[in-house]
Design goal:
single chain, mainly alpha, two-stranded antiparallel sheet
């Protein structure tokens, strides 16, 4: 799956989850997925906790974080 396809799974809507990025069709914040991965949970464990998630949703959360980190690094490097 391409990066753009993964990012299409991310929803940014001020009416949903207070505008926080979440997985489209759910109210699962990207931060929840990333926090779980940072704590050492596997994709399978996250899916057990949140059965509506898919492996591609988890990959989408990682792709979103990667995009944000590239943007922030660029801003720091050009400051």
């Amino acid at each position: 799956m391409y990066q753009s396809d993964l990012l299409d799974r991310i929803n940014l809507d001020p009416k949903i989850c207070g505008g926080k990025p979440c997985i489209r069709g759910t109210r699962i914040d990207i931060a929840i997925i990333l926090d779980g991965l940072a704590e050492g949970l596997t994709a399978e464990q996250l899916i057990d906790h949140y059965p509506q998630l898919t492996v591609d949703d988890i990959r989408a959360a990682l792709a979103y974080a990667a995009e944000l980190s590239r943007e922030n690094i660029w801003k720091i490097a050009t400051a």
